[in-house]
Amino acid sequence: MADNGSAPAVALEAVTIAYPGAGGAYTAVSEVDLSVARGRFVALVGPTGCGKSTVLNAVAGLLPPSSGRVLIDGEPVSGPNRRAGYLFQQDALLPWKTVLGNVAFGLELRGVGKRERLERARDWVRRVGLAGFENAYPHQLSGGMRKRTAVAQTWIGDPELLLMDEPFGALDVQTRQVMENELLGLWTGTEKTVLFVTHDLDEAVSLSDEVVLLSAGPASRVVGRYPVDLPRPRDLLDIRTEPAFTRIYRAIWADLRDEVMATYDRDRGEA
Ligand SMILES: Nc1ncnc2c1ncn2[C@@H]1O[C@H](COP(=O)(O)OP(=O)(O)OP(=O)(O)O)[C@@H](O)[C@H]1O
Which domains does the chain have, with CATH numbers? Predict the structure, then answer.
């Protein structure tokens, strides 16, 4: 592979994505430019339906742009990116496999020998706090435990790039806070780049180095980039009460609110 050490981990260049439809194509995002340096934690926010998942799917290589380019480490994306790790709101646990089997599954697909993959899976099960549940099946787990299993499943492959789409959206508030903290704990000190989609501004600010705001659709584009210069390592339970957190949150919300209202007005007009 080319030596692209200085290239951004992720770059979108004038990316436009239109979905075909019966009444004509729907342009979800238009001319999106975005560059994410290696090792950064970037949150993507915007009103509902603005195209956050669309952008993430394009970066994942699951959705080819109608025009423009997506580059990973300086190389154009052409097909699903197998070096990236994914975490979505819906986990992808296999119901017939145990926790250990689910965590080891990615390594199994890659042909890693049984002994090694089980050893590594056991280590990850322990790291996400599920020691003792190795032999449990997904239906025997709480939502938080399923999510921990999914986190281990993703991280065991040691991906350089993590693409997360509202990964904790379905969890109750308390479990969510614990999981967010644990995610930061895993990520801190690594060189991993994270693109994190959320519609929760609180979550976006507390986790990330930078928040990127997409405008209301159709034809959404990037309308704001906000550095989050809060110290690390962060304890999310503490950081949300810091004056600096409130300052950043308010600055972004002032702009996000306009986009949310634009979406609301548009939907009302269509109703
Ligand atoms: N496969 C598809 N075919 C047609 N339109 C689609 C398709 N997928 C998404 N869209 C439309 O594209 C727009 C962007 O959708 P997307 O899911 O990317 O937004 P989002 O910001 O992630 O939404 P949310 O915050 O509600 O999860 C929406 O209007 C959606 O209805």
Answer: 1-81+199-271 (3.40.50.300)
Given ligand 1 and candidates 12, 30, 53, which is best to mutate, with the most ligand atoms within 8 Å of its CB?
53
| Ligand 1: centre distance to CA 221 (Å) | 14
Query: Could you read off the pLDDT tens digit of each residue along the chain, which spans 271 residues?
Result: 445 668 999 999 999 999 998 788 999 999 999 999 999 999 999 999 999 999 999 999 999 999 999 999 999 998 888 889 999 888 889 999 999 999 999 999 999 999 999 999 999 999 999 999 999 999 999 999 999 999 999 999 999 999 999 999 888 888 899 999 999 999 999 999 999 999 899 999 999 999 999 999 899 999 999 999 999 999 888 899 999 999 999 999 999 998 888 888 888 877 6
Please say whether the beta carbons of 58 and 220 come within 8 A. Answer: no
Residue 217 Cβ contacting ligand 1 at under 6 Å? yes
Contacts of 115 (CB under 8 A, 6+ apart): none
Are β-strands 193-197 and 161-165 bridged in parallel, bridged antiparallel, or unpaired? parallel
